[in-house]
Amino acid sequence: MSNKLEKKIIIKGDIITETGIMVGGNNSAFEIGGTDKQVIRNPVNQLPYIPGSSLKGKMRSLLEISMGTFSRTKNGYGPSHNPSRIPAQLFGHIKDRKDNNNESQQASRVIVRDSELKNAEIFDGKTELLYTEVKAENSIDRITSAANPRFFERVPKGAKFDLNIILSIYENDENKDEFLKTIFSCLKMIQDDYVGGGGSRGNGQVSFNIAALKERTVAYYLEDAPENDISHLIPEELKANSDD
């Protein structure tokens, strides 16, 4: 049975770095004086960005953990592919995974765009590298007590990235009323977790400021109908302040 698109919900706002964040690109330790790990950058303008895949993966991971829906695999545990579970319904599942009689496959209902740096000008001339800082860390050999210094590039505290998430809702979706709430729950959990690497060492704390929440029905795309403002559904914990 076909499942007709009902609407798309557009979530827009900002991601604010509360500590430096490390979303890794290439290693450069072979360079004299280079950092051990670089952040990922747009190759055209050299601005750091947060890949949508990093944010989306963190959203699903925390959701699976909170709901206890991870699936057992030959390599340990992985995401749920049981179509009766909300993480699989929301983020997609793959055919032929041996998980509770799964017989279908479904694309993700969620699109997470790459997040571009919006306030690069505040870092001009103030950081060691272009728009980024270098964090020194030191690991100690437990046997010899020898120090092993490492240097990581990270985007400093105070950086602002754009947030752009699109949720597709279909007419036959059983839990359609829960999907938007679940996305908000994922974002709230990330605020108490981290994005990128080195989270247990103080990196990656972020907050979300959602400024706009729009609903676009199929008529918006096919008949030029107006979109609906549903910003009243934004949780207070995620709502952008008027003076931001």
Protein model, in words:
Helix 1 crosses helix 3 (176-191). A hairpin with a 6-residue loop joins strand 7 (133-140) and strand 8 (147-154). The termini are far apart. The chain has four helices and eleven strands; from the N terminus they run E-E-H-E-E-H-E-E-E-E-E-H-E-H-E. It is α+β, with helices and mostly antiparallel strands. The chain has one domain (5-67, 109-238). Helices cover 18% and strands 27% of the residues. The protein has helices at residues 52-67, 86-91, 176-191, 218-222, and strands at 5-17, 49-50, 71-73, 76-78, 110-112, 115-116, 133-140, 147-154, 160-170, 206-217, 228-229.
Index terms:
single chain; 244 residues; alpha+beta; 5-stranded antiparallel sheet; two-stranded antiparallel sheet
Please, what is the oligomeric state? single chain
Return the domain count.
1
Percent of residues in helices comes to: 10-25%
Count the helices. How many?
A: 4
Strand content: 25-35%
Overall geometry comes to globular
Could you tell me how far the N terminus lies from the C terminus, measured between alpha carbons in angstroms?
A: 46 Å
Arithmetic mean pLDDT: 85
Rg value? 20 Å
Structural class: alpha+beta
Unreliable runs: 28-34
Compact summary:
The chain is α+β, with helices and mostly antiparallel strands. Helices cover 18% and strands 27% of the residues.
List the helices and strands and how they pair.
Blueprint lengths: L4 E13 L31 E2 L1 H16 L3 E3 L2 E3 L7 H6 L18 E3 L2 E2 L16 E8 L6 E8 L5 E11 L5 H16 L14 E12 H5 L5 E2 L15
Helix pairs in contact: 1-3
